[in-house]
Specification:
The structure holds two protein chains of two kinds. By secondary structure, chain A is mainly beta. Chain A has no helices and eleven strands. The radius of gyration of chain A is 13 Å and the shape is globular. In chain B, the strands form two sheets. In chain B, strands 2, 4, 5, 6, 9, 10 and 11 form a seven-stranded mixed β-sheet that branches. In chain B, strands 1-3-8-7 form a four-stranded antiparallel β-sheet, with no helix packed on it. Helix content of chain B is 0%, strand content 49%. The chains are: A mainly beta, B mainly beta.
């Protein structure tokens, strides 16, 4: 199975900060990766698919990019509602695999 | 409005069985690949299984292959997960989610989850 290594596992940031989260795939997965946000007690929410396509209704401060097997989620200006845990998910082939998650906390 | 409503979770002893259901509404069920994803308490997400539109092809995580069976009833717009020989490590909230399968795959709608606890 493809392994997804996500970093950091947690970070502290302030409102207005630029935040970057990365996932590295253990092999080439083209652009077959999505980013999901999860708040406590809630189901995950799709933010970005195909590495860089913003899901409808998601604020434009969220963006995704990739180079080779390295994928990045960027929040350009962190808002209070963005404090949550973020996961990447490779959908290149089955079994799909998630990254370990990044918890974004208030500094 | 798209809705996915899981049910069937609960407390079961190790070695026991449970069947989860996910009732779909608000969209054409046959147009989507359906998935199960789980999350152990306080931990990350784990993709569990997927089933294509017709039900002819199914896919599983290594951790559940041979113990879990995914199925769907398109006439009832319902997804199922039959879980046998349950282990303590299967304790988790189980979510169903749909995959549009167009140019890209992704999970755009999720249910609220149903908790499964495997304990004696």
């Amino acid at each position: 199975a493809i392994q997804m290594t996500q970093s950091p596992s947690s970070l502290s940031a302030s409102v207005g900060d630029r935040v970057t989260i990365t996932c590295r795939a253990s092999q080439v997965i083209r652009n077959d990766l999505g980013w999901y946000q999860q708040k406590p007690g809630k189901a995950p929410k799709l933010l970005i698919y195909a590495a860089s396509t913003l899901q409808s209704g998601v604020p434009s401060r969220f963006s995704g990019s990739y180079s080779g097997t390295d994928f990045t989620l960027t929040i350009s200006s962190l808002q209070p509602e963005d404090f949550a845990t973020y996961f990447c998910l490779q959908d290149y082939n089955y079994p799909w695999t998630f990254g370990q998650g990044t918890k974004v906390e208030i500094k | 409005e798209v809705q996915l409503l899981e049910s069937g979770g609960g407390l079961v002893q190790p070695g026991g069985s449970l069947r989860l259901s996910c009732a779909a509404s608000g969209f054409t069920f046959t147009g989507y690949v359906m998935n199960w994803v789980r999350q152990p308490p306080g931990k990350g997400l784990e993709w569990v299984s997927a089933i294509i539109h017709s039900g002819d092809n199914t896919y599983y995580a290594d951790s559940v292959r041979g113990r879990f069976t995914i199925s769907r009833d398109n006439s009832r717009s319902t997804l199922y997960l039959q879980m046998n020989n349950l282990r303590a490590e299967d304790t988790a909230v189980y979510y169903c989610a749909r995959d549009p399968v167009g140019m890209s795959d992704y999970l755009d709608y999720w249910g609220q989850g149903t908790p499964v606890t495997v304990s004696s």
